[in-house]
Amino acid sequence: MPKVILSKISTKAPKNADKKSVVKKTAELATKIGKMSEMLWAEKKHSLLVILQGMDGSGKDGVAKSVFMACPALVIDAHAFKKPSEEEFAHDFLWRVHKNVPAKGQVKLFIRSHYEDILIQRVHQWIDDKKAASRLEAINNFEKLLVEDNETTILKFYLHLSHERQLEKLEERRIDPEKQWKFNPADFEESKLWDKYMRYYEAAINGSVIPWNIVPSDSRWYRNYIVAQKVYDTLKKLNPAFPLLLENGKNKT
Amino acid sequence: MPKVILSKISTKAPKNADKKSVVKKTAELATKIGKMSEMLWAEKKHSLLVILQGMDGSGKDGVAKSVFMACPALVIDAHAFKKPSEEEFAHDFLWRVHKNVPAKGQVKLFIRSHYEDILIQRVHQWIDDKKAASRLEAINNFEKLLVEDNETTILKFYLHLSHERQLEKLEERRIDPEKQWKFNPADFEESKLWDKYMRYYEAAINGSVIPWNIVPSDSRWYRNYIVAQKVYDTLKKLNPAFPLLLENGKNKT
């Protein structure tokens, strides 16, 4: 696979994309995703793990909301990874992650994930390069286990935002009364470390065995569409179906 | 490392071993283990994971009781792995194991473990050789993570019992009123699969990156002593110490 160089990938929607029709298509896809997630749940053969990573303001919560809005609460669960608790910190970095992986039939959203342990932790030099390499290897092994031992499909999205657009969105949070609850002055400080984040995001993306989807995220509507399309295509390939009763009264599967 | 061939390793205590002095030494070791486990807990630098595997009647519970009797309940925890629950079964085989690994400062006993997933499951052909190979690789990766990311020391004991001695012990369970609670007629059925178990135990032991201790277990007193000595030596190497106050009133570590 060719190396991903983030600075060479556009963060913008294509010029010819038509917002109105894209928004409509996204809503249609979300409805289908909801229906297929119910089948996945009923069938209990596979599970789907969706990893959402991206800088502050890139729209992880927004994607979680709009793409998966039609998935029943019983089927879907979103887990946002924050600063580790004292108990979590006393264990290996994958301990709290493994606890939260999807069971067969489930769709699980990770808002941030185990990748933070080789992103923010590297940016702030809480871990050295050797530890980061050992963690990356552990991540690849861990994801392999989920795929091979539990029929998990792992979908990774990097929400690719420009630095300029991030600053606009952080400013929105400061001003918009419906977004102020998300505002944290420390985010502006963290934003100054942009170049370092990009470097370690590239290292994480290029070192992953299971590939990443790089999603242009300066426009919310286009970002949501790209993710929805990929989730839909993936579910379609899994081809879930409601198990039917056989003549003897037993389930087919 | 030379390949382990279980049939070539004695299950008996050496002829010259003196039961009375061995029992006394074991009790002394257990006291020291208890003290050192408190230091491990206070220091919170390392964790110790003790894996006890062996056929029915080999004395996993007995070891857990006698070797660790002086460890405070706050420091030590024993987890017996049984048939997976429906929720556990809907996840990869290491999911329920990872949840139970020791935090820094803890001593954790696994009575049976993730190795059952390549033992009983192979004996009964619930998984094929390919799945077993993929699980063995996952086990080695998982144990590496615990060692590298959380300063965990993993001590593995195979309690090596002869088939004849097993049958005696199962019979004891049938007769002894204090042991009847452990009796399960199905154990005699499982015992008939002895040779298969030995074959897959050998495969597990020889495929493990972190080595196993093969403990002659026909005599309870000798078995307990060998385990106690190894646990003691391991804790001594970890060299835990109560963190002291410095002159500025802060802890040294």
Describe this structure in words.
Two copies of one chain form a homodimer. Chain A has helices at about 20-45, 60-65, 85-90, 95-100, 120-125, 130-150, 165-175, 185-190, 195-205, 220-240, and strands at about 45-55, 75-80, 105-110, 150-160, 210-215. With about 250 residues, chain A is α/β, with parallel strands linked by helices. Chain A has one domain: P-loop containing nucleotide triphosphate hydrolases (Rossmann fold, 3-Layer(aba) Sandwich). In chain A, strands 2-3-1-4-5 form a five-stranded parallel beta sheet, with helices on both faces. In chain A, helix 1 packs parallel to helix 10 and helix 2 packs across helix 10 (about 220-240). The radius of gyration of chain A is 19 Å and the shape is globular. The mean pLDDT of chain A is about 95.
The whole-number mean of residue pLDDT values of chain A reads 96
CATH domain fold name of chain A = Rossmann fold
Instruction: Note the run of SSEs of chain A as H and E.
Output: HEHEHHEHHEHHHEH
CATH class of chain A: Alpha Beta
> How many helices of chain A?
10
